[in-house]
Amino acid sequence: MMFLSVLFSGIGIGYFIYGKKQKKIVPFCVGIALFGYTYFMPNVISIIVVGVVLILLPKFIK
Fold it and tell me: What is the pLDDT of residues 3-28, one digit of tens each?
C-alpha cells in the first residue's frame, strides 16, 4: 500500500509541475489530488481505481 502511495504521488508531482509551467488547470489540480487521495482510501482496489481515473482525466478534459 505504501508503494502505491509513493507511485501515485510521484506521478502527481509530474502533473503538478507540468500544469504549473504550462498554466493548465486540469493537470495542476490532478497533481494536487494525486498527492493526498491515498490517505483517504480504505483499500488497495480503491486506491488503484481512483489513481488510474485521475491519471487519465487530463487526457479527456482539456
Answer: 999 999 999 999 999 999 999 999 99
Structural domain includes residue 61:
no
CA pseudo-torsion sign 21, 26, 27, 28: positive
How many domains would you assign to the chain?
A: 1
CA dihedral 23, 14, 45, 59 (to 10 degrees): 50
User: pTM score > 0.85 for this model?
Assistant: yes
What does the DSSP 8-state code read for residue 21?
A: H
Range of the domain at 31: 2-56
